[in-house]
Amino acid sequence: MSKIIVYDTDHPGGVRNICFAESYATQGPGHGFTVELAEKARIQGLEIVTGDVFLKNGYSNKTAFCVTDMRSIRTNLLLRKGVIPMFCFLTESPIIARDFYIDIEKYAGRFIHNIQFRGTAPRLGKTPTHFSVMYYPIDQRIPIPPQNWNDKKFLILVNRNKRMFRSDHSNLKGYLLSISSYFKSEIQKIIDPWIRSREIYKDRIEAIRYFSTKNQFDLYGQGWNNKIPGFSVRYHHAAKLVYKGEIEPDRKLRVMNNYKFSLCFENCAFPGYVTEKIFDCFLSSCIPIYFGAPDITDFVPADTFIDFRRFKSLGQLEVYFKSFTEDDATRMLENAKNFLSSQEFDKFYTPNVVDSIINRIINYQV
Hints:
alpha/beta, Rossmann fold, 6-stranded parallel β-sheet, 15 helices, 37% helix
């Protein structure tokens, strides 16, 4: 009996096989994963479809394997239809995908394999699943050549204006849903320590306010024209002062290449939660000031980035910037380039991540 991969996700691209089209890879971080998955599957003679297509067409003559991003409205139905729960992974943080993390044993523990951030290992260790540490899939490994150091602008921050709770005060319905979301997040913090992971969004906002008065600091991303949830209007005015608009995903690295440093702040501090943000810096030849995973140096060499935790204040960080020389920059950028070409980076490289999934499906004995 032939095999078919069913890719299951609630992401907007996870229907009608949209996420397998080559153009999808340029739509945002991590999107290249599904394109690569589809290409490698076809090379190996495997069919691949999104969950909605599978449920519509049946495929009763094939052995179906579910590869799921967190869970979707179709996950339970797919498994009831006999689709083998093969892989579950998640690239969101616990303060965003709160419901999933709180019930991770229930949702993810039923899968044969889990690829999750390191901090989830203790709970998933109580289930029969085979646990693997998540290495966030990165599609590229050759950085853009650095510009002349003295020609670069000073500092950039690329992030969405996004908190752990909903914030929409544009109408009564949005306001009520936002209040409900806020109180739900506060209750979840009480019942689950993972949801109490440090929300670095707050540190990001303080950094925006501080550097908004400095020369050549620019802010990019979605939502900064809107009010900043939980902060006074002066923070909103500071953000508007330096906001340069959104960046199309396929232009982001080129834009970042124009800057010496990037404030590279994750959404929260959670073990192993290392996303594309620091790799975007490496690939754009821009030096990251990193704040996020407490175990970052288990994933990325310490000599490739500036650790924000070293500084007691943003003022101390600014003093450090002034002492940072072109030679310092050359060394750090070269270290990052070497890392991208190393065996250690192989764990993050999308084709290798996909190969490990495809090979396990091919070798699975039904």
